[in-house]
Design a protein that fits this description.
Elements (H helix, E strand, L loop, with lengths): L1 H31 L3 H17 L7 H24 L3 H17 L5 H17 L9 H21 L9 H21 L5 H12 L17 H24 L8 H23 L15 H16 L7 H27 L21 H12 L5 H23 L5 H10 L4 H29 L3 H22 L1 H19 L5 H23 L5 H29 L7 H7 L17 H22 L12 H17 L11 H21 L16 H6 L2 H24 L30
Helix pairs in contact: 1-2, 1-6, 1-17, 2-5, 2-6, 3-4, 3-5, 3-6, 4-5, 4-14, 5-15, 7-8, 7-9, 7-10, 8-9, 9-12, 10-11, 10-12, 11-12, 11-26, 12-26, 14-15, 14-19, 15-19, 16-18, 16-19, 17-18, 20-22, 20-23, 20-24, 20-26, 22-23, 23-26, 24-26
Amino acid sequence: MAEGLSAVARTGRHAAHVTAATAAGFYPALYLLDRPVAGIYALFTPIAFGILSPLPGAGRDRAATVLRAVPAAAVLVVLGTVLAVGTWPAVAGMLAVGFALAFGAACGPRTAGAAPGLQLFYILACFPPYEPGTLPQRLVGLAVGGALLALAEAFLFPDAPEPSYRGRIADALDAAALAASGVVRGEGPDPETAGRLGAAGRELRLSRLPAGARPTGAGRTDRALAQAGAATRRLLDQLALLAAHVPAPGDTVSADLLRGIAASCTETAGALRRGDRGRRGRTLPGPQLLEEMVADFLKARGGAAAGPEPAPRAVLVRRSTVLTAAVSAVTVRTAASLALGGRERLHGLPREQFWYAAEGPARLLAVRIRGNLTRRSVVFQNALRTALGLALARLVAGSLDLSHGFWVLLAVLTLGRTTAGATWSAVRAAAAGTLAGAFAAGLLIVGAGGASDVYAALLVPMMLVAFTLGPLGGPAWGQGLFTLVVATAFAQIAPVTWRLAEARLVDVLTGSAIGLLCGLLAWPAGARAEIRYAMSALLRSAAPLVRATATAVTDGSGRVAAPALAQAQAGPSASPEEPGDPGPPSPGVRLTLHRLRIAEAAYAQYRTEPAASAAETAHDWLAVLDHGSRTLVGAYWLPRTDGMPGLPPEARRWAREAAEEVVAATVRAAGFPPDGVRTGPAPLPPEVAERVPAPLLAPLTDVEVWLRALARDLEAGAAPQAPQAPQAPQAPQAPQAPQTPQAQDTS
């Protein structure tokens, strides 16, 4: 109840912002300066950026986004004004502009949020009459409308700041620090702590945040925050495993590292809250760098193994789990330092894991764009569908010489969805709402006639009602009330008859038909059809990486991406989104990371679409993403030695067979529906463990723990899941533009 009232209050405040900005620009331009063209652009600019565009953030953040988008809108107005010379130039421009703006969703939430509104400026300018002389008026109206909206967003009933992902990571790290300290002094299993850690990890899923607070941009800061969040979730899971099991008494080796994990988490959480930057290009300061503590742990573990009393297997497994938790804590601290502006040197760390640290913004943007230029990317699919729909609508409107033809394109833009079914649902509701709105507008025009004072008096309250009830009521209310708004506004610009309402109805129905046709012909199933392929491709690329990692650890082959693996992995489809480390390339790692990003984008869109059937929700896709991420982490961190000289052949054979079992299960899971993915690599037999030299038993246990974690992910990915409803928008707006996922971690 409270959440619903909060949403109504947010929508009402937002409607007040747009209404105030529109009225402050439209009335003076029309009645004081007698500049109707400037008035039209002053009218539509707040609507474009305030209603059509789901801008992220609140208050001054939204105002800053509007101001940054105004220059781009001016370029589109100039381009549209020039190309309005003919139908075909305008269609070609619409195709290019439509694709470029929709594809910009891959660059981050701010670009994705502003894209629908920017589309409107080209749409408005590219329609006849061809009047280049009115360009100054158009640009002035745009500038005034944008400035007024920015002022309203910043100072008129500003929204409360949205939750920060950086703050959520800090809260989760505080919970991790308490848990790590509790594990050190614990005397038995603590399921309550394990449950709290699981809840804290769920709060870090990006689906729990408003779109504007999600670190999904292409820049270094967003990439680092996303990596820090994912590593924090892994850390919480690993600490939950430790808290849920009986501790090993007298295990001072693990206790020291757990204290270091707790100190690092506390320190990193404080820095994230304060916004500290790395000092002199170094990592976050501390009494002792966690990497050094990990090195001390490895030495102490090796020394304990060489002692007269070898540690029991349960203690070795526990120490390996503590080590994986420390690796996650190192990743969190390093990524947090990068997110806060530190120039990480990455001494002793796997550079491929933080490949973006030394890259510039232009390079990172190019990597993101190149990674999504594939027909398997849902971002690419949505951009192409949108561009073709808008270009076809412009061709139809221009060829048929429809009155107010830009309404046709506006209908395509606002009613298009990522699935044909969702588009049909939106079109049906919008058609009914437009019909009712056209009827009401016709009655208003017939009753008021040419009395412009009546329309001037009604416009402000009508906008306030439309921009409040429209987002809350859905497409029917949005289109119906918006029909009344545009009829009231255009009646003040030029004399109108009831045929204006008729033209609005015809245009919306035409645009709806075009949008539905595109939805039926271009990827009609949305992410539901793509997610299976994306997850299958991710698993198929991860499988050889599991084998290569295990081989690199036991045989000492060094880098995971050896030439043999490079040949096996780098097929014609390998166009990795993420570049690797300078030096010898690692196509296996890069291909898996690329496919992980594509799968994450498909999963993000899947969560925004209507709930699928039970057969389509029979998999835990998030567990599949976790499997791919865990595979990469193992490839980054496990091959840290020169191999295991002196490892008995039977132990080497066990490692190879255990890895092959996970590889085979991964390949079977990639089939969808999976065939027999229940697996668990056989534990190291006691008789084999007795023959393994004590210093080699611990790193061999690290491989075992990693393989068993991968097996758990595979089993979870095949477990039946309840259908999940699409994520509700945090601040619904109407007309609602289709949501487009970002190509980043969106679990």
